[in-house]
Amino acid sequence: MERIVDLSPAVPHGFKGPPSTDLGVQLEVRTKPGYWQSTQTNLMSLHTGCHVESALHTIEGGESIDEVALERVIGEAVVLDLTPVEEMALLDVPDLEKARKRLESRGESIRTGDILLLRTDWSERAIGQHAYFRRSPGLTEEAARWLVEREPKCIGCDFFEEPAAREPGWTPDQFVVHNTILGAGIPLVEGLVNLKDLPPRCRFFAPFYKFAGIESAPARAFAVIE
Question: Are the C-beta atoms of 173 and 167 separated by less than 8 Å?
């Protein structure tokens, strides 16, 4: 029997986006007598909660989010379990190799074209808060290259993987993790939750809103497991 695991957080009023915008979600609920409700969002970064990013996020002239085919965020996925992870830890190649060996000890391996899901459980501790970005574990540039060398079609994270962007004052050239992954044509799914509930391999889905000409869109990610 199949089971669906929701991998997207709820996004209530006030849910915090990245520090580059420092926007909390602003939901305006409009009603009319009888019963009719229509809600609009007045302010929200499209990098809030679960979302998919395309190369245009950090690569000038890169593909926009509407150019990312759904097939690239849907498919077989494996979970690289990096737990336990301390806040603000820098995850490097040895950490990924350890997670790969843990995966293999459970009878699975990384295959070309897999979706790689990086589990730290950080989102369970802080998503929607300032701390989610500013105290998150991150990846080194070498770790990002290791991931790209596995030739995945997509990478998903339950933490904010770019340590340079924890505080204001960063410059685009410091986005080494994004530049490495997005520059290789690999979409990033950020803001995942509940990766702890997944087996080593599952079917992953991250359909997203088809905004045109920009770099990101909200997603409702989920997994289907036996």
Answer: no
Q: What are the residues whose beta carbons fall under 8 Å from the beta carbon of 75, sequence distance 6 or more?
A: 113, 114, 115, 153, 154, 203, 204
Is CATH 3.50.30.50 the right assignment for the domain spanning 3-8+46-225? yes
What tens digit of pLDDT does each residue of 163-222 get?
998 877 889 999 999 999 999 999 999 999 999 999 999 999 999 999 999 999 999 999
Which own/partner contact pairs does 206-213 have at CB distance under 8 Å and 24+ positions apart? Answer: 206/50, 206/52, 206/73, 206/74, 206/154, 206/156, 207/70, 207/73, 207/74, 208/51, 208/52, 208/65, 208/68, 208/73, 210/65, 210/66, 211/46, 211/65, 211/66, 212/64, 212/66, 213/64, 213/66
- pLDDT, one tens digit per residue, over 5-44 is 999 999 999 999 988 777 889 999 999 999 999 999 888 8
| Cα(175)–Cα(177) distance, integer angstroms | 6
The DSSP-derived string for 2-18 is: -EEEE-S----TT-B--
- All structural domains of the chain with their residue ranges: 3-8+46-225
Supply the pLDDT for residue 120.
98
